[in-house]
Amino acid sequence: MGSKELEKILSDTNENGKFLAVLLTDHEGFPIASASSANYSPETQAALVGLVQRATGQATEQLGIAANAEFTMLDAEGNLFICHPFFSKGVEMVLSFLIPGRNLPYRRLMSLTINAIQQLDF
């Protein structure tokens, strides 16, 4: 995957959405690429993605709860953390946004970003 192209996609998404950070991880939460407008650690965000993925996986297995397409969390500062799993060329990935507050629109940008990532050559 072209890392410069991927970084450009995430950087443009972060800037256009006026987000705090955008992160792409594998399904285990290991960072692939990120962009941020503040000093947010991609490793910290990736760890959070990994925790969310494990928790939802356990809920699906042990409780029979259907897997969700999107997970959101609100932090103590009022920022919204969104994780959206998707597949690109058979590889499971998670696109995450950290959004200031909860009122900024993000779904259109999330869809456009996922489509752009899926168009990249691996």
Give a written overview of the molecule:
- With 122 residues, the chain is an alpha+beta fold.
- The chain has a single domain, classed as Dynein light chain 2a, cytoplasmic (Beta-Lactamase).
- The chain has 3 helices and 5 strands; from the N terminus they run αββαβββα.
- The chain has a 5-stranded antiparallel β-sheet with strand order 2-1-5-4-3.
- α1 packs antiparallel against α3.
- The longest helix is centred in the middle third of the chain and has 22 residues, at 42-63.
Question: Which helices and strands occur, and which strands form pairs?
Answer:
Layout: H1 3-17, E1 21-26, E2 31-36, H2 42-63, E3 71-74, E4 80-88, E5 91-99, H3 107-119
Antiparallel strand pairs: 1-2, 1-5, 3-4, 4-5
Helix pairs in contact: 1-3
Rounded Rg: 14 Å
Which second-level CATH architecture applies? 2-Layer Sandwich
Number of strands: 5
Class from secondary-structure proportions: alpha+beta
Mean pLDDT: 83
Features:
about 30% strand, 5 strands, Beta-Lactamase, single chain, alpha+beta, about 120 residues, globular
In short:
The protein is of the alpha+beta class.
